[in-house]
Design goal:
Length: 78
């Protein structure tokens, strides 16, 4: 039984040793891509809907005449 566990452990060790470096590299590339795509101005902040007072993220908020609205129905647009 112990031999089986040791064999599995060795397989896992080899497996992780072989895949570890490419996986880390890929993760770094993905992170670099995400940072490159994200402009500095695009910070997500919570804004209050001027109509109903619901807080909504600035990305999801609808801006009409410089005022933030939580939804199209609050903003009065279709
Ligand atoms: Zn609202």
């Amino acid at each position: 039984m112990l031999k089986i566990i040791l064999t599995i452990a060795v397989i896992f060790a080899v497996y992780f040793f072989l895949i570890k470096k490419p996986a880390v590299k890929k993760r770094r590339e993905e992170r670099a891509d995400a940072e490159a795509k994200k402009p500095g101005l695009d910070e997500e902040i919570m804004v209050e809907c001027v109509k109903c007072g619901t807080f909504v993220s600035s990305k999801e908020a609808i801006i009409v005449d410089g005022k933030y609205y939580c939804s199209k129905s609050c903003a009065g647009v279709k």
